Amino acid sequence: MSFLRRTAVAAAAFALAASGTVLSQTPASALENGLLRTPPMGFNNWNSTQCKADFTETMIRGIADIFVSKGLKDAGYTYVNIDDCWALPDRDAKGDLVPDPARFPHGIKALADYVHGKGLKFGIYTSAGTHTCNKAGFPGALGHEQQDANLFASWGVDYLKYDNCNNQGVDAQQRYKAMRDALAKSGRPIAYSICEWGQNKPWTWAAPVGNLWRSTGDISDKWSSMIAKAQTNRGLAQYAGPGHWNDPDMLEVGNGGMTAAEYRTHFSLWAMMAAPLLIGSDLRKVSDDSFSILKNTDVIALDQDPLGKQATVLSSNGGLVVYSKVLANGDRAVALSNETTATATISTSASATGIGSASSYTLKDLWTKAIRTTSGSISASVPSHATVLYRLSSGASRYEAESASLSAGGTIDSNHAGFSGTGFANGANAIGSYVEWQVSGPASTLTFGYANGTTTARPVDISVDGTVVAAGVPFPSTGAWTTWSTVSRTVALAAGPHTIRLTATTADGPANLDYLDVSP
Ligand code: GCU
């Protein structure tokens, strides 16, 4: 078993453990070039320049500089990619592609070297056709796959976007596999982006062919275009995973055609969908607002989560859409997205995300950074075209005392109000009287809800799986049997089942016990 194969198997096993569900479909095995285990992050000039005159090596060097100086590299942006119109219309006498000397007077290798010198990676573009898409008729790689792949490798290219124009009607799988094989033979690891616009359902065949595939036609810098891409791409969650991603096209954040709320929705949904985060604006000109969107590390962490699960849609009602994404540590990301023209309340619940039952959850709003707790309901008033994005974490798992085992003479009572669930454990008034729970780790903290209506503490020994881990722990007076409080102890519980027992060390027996909260 190769290293990559083992990694994939381990990741799949982890995915099962974390989601608690069984995969309904075995995904096609991924392209085993080891690249893009998380979605690519970087830049491509197309959305800002197309083939206009400002697409030059000066611009691309400037972007690489800004990646470093403005903290984008530190935030994870790595690839600095160029798009169509970098070449001359004719190959040279050897049949090689020639960089346009007006745009790239030092050539592509010098530019790649410059980008590498910044600790970044460099990407290039061509088409799986006789020519690229531009009317000037720049040469494509159809029939020249190995020669072009070798040239790119010799220049130090790390990423190829392979377009679909002028494909002569040749079968898409044949064309894209030919370049996959040529890249593999080039001797250089090159991430491979299939830009076939979703025309032949690449999600059904491209996992073993490319590292990502476009699921849609080209994006443009307006709400209607952006949200349409999301609507198509969000139905393809089952096909995405480490090394093989759905690609709803590059980012428009910063290009000026959408509101700040719309750009936050764009960035939120791309992160939820584990989409490539390829910046498409000229970073030399964009506002601080756009930088703050692009550098939101909480949102980036959703996109780059190592589990590599694309969000699924939990509900979609008249343009009010709830997405949930399973994260590697068991958390869930939840997006409440309003595609309508009016403010609306959008709601879901912790249980709908499959996170597992707990007595409380933490919700972090990844745009405002506000943190609050909830017993399970997740709801927000969401302005038109905005998205509220949360990271949902499980607080504690509660084990009620009415589900515990009691030593002889103990009873489950309900005569003192204020308890949780349906009752509390009233252990016998005797030394050695105990209350015992079966719980699941991992955990680090045990919290006991209790009442002690006497004036004297009721000490117990706390044991885990038969070993006392805390002796004579006092449960002080709460002043009344209807006044409930908590006692907590830090106890390291490994993953898996455990028996927690409280054993009275005095003739008074234990306090009345309401529940045990087991916290991660
Ligand atoms: C009272 C009280 C019980 C409690 C007991 C005790 O009887 O009503 O709930 O368990 O005292 O001292 O343990």
TrEMBL record:
<dbReference type="InterPro" id="IPR013780">
    <property type="entry name" value="Glyco_hydro_b"/>
</dbReference>
<dbReference type="InterPro" id="IPR041233">
    <property type="entry name" value="Melibiase_C"/>
</dbReference>
<protein>
    <recommendedName>
        <fullName>Alpha-galactosidase</fullName>
        <ecNumber>3.2.1.22</ecNumber>
    </recommendedName>
</protein>
<dbReference type="InterPro" id="IPR005084">
    <property type="entry name" value="CBM6"/>
</dbReference>
<dbReference type="InterPro" id="IPR006584">
    <property type="entry name" value="Cellulose-bd_IV"/>
</dbReference>
<dbReference type="GO" id="GO:0030246">
    <property type="term" value="F:carbohydrate binding"/>
</dbReference>
<dbReference type="InterPro" id="IPR017853">
    <property type="entry name" value="GH"/>
</dbReference>
<dbReference type="GO" id="GO:0004557">
    <property type="term" value="F:alpha-galactosidase activity"/>
</dbReference>
<feature type="signal peptide">
    <location>
        <begin position="1"/>
        <end position="24"/>
    </location>
</feature>
<dbReference type="GO" id="GO:0005975">
    <property type="term" value="P:carbohydrate metabolic process"/>
</dbReference>
<feature type="domain" description="CBM6">
    <location>
        <begin position="397"/>
        <end position="519"/>
    </location>
</feature>
<dbReference type="InterPro" id="IPR000111">
    <property type="entry name" value="Glyco_hydro_27/36_CS"/>
</dbReference>
<dbReference type="Pfam" id="PF16499">
    <property type="entry name" value="Melibiase_2"/>
</dbReference>
<comment type="similarity">
    <text>Belongs to the glycosyl hydrolase 27 family.</text>
</comment>
<dbReference type="InterPro" id="IPR013785">
    <property type="entry name" value="Aldolase_TIM"/>
</dbReference>
<dbReference type="Pfam" id="PF03422">
    <property type="entry name" value="CBM_6"/>
</dbReference>
<keyword id="KW-0378">Hydrolase</keyword>
<dbReference type="InterPro" id="IPR002241">
    <property type="entry name" value="Glyco_hydro_27"/>
</dbReference>
<dbReference type="Pfam" id="PF17801">
    <property type="entry name" value="Melibiase_C"/>
</dbReference>
<keyword id="KW-0732">Signal</keyword>
<keyword id="KW-0326">Glycosidase</keyword>
<keyword id="KW-1015">Disulfide bond</keyword>
<dbReference type="InterPro" id="IPR008979">
    <property type="entry name" value="Galactose-bd-like_sf"/>
</dbReference>
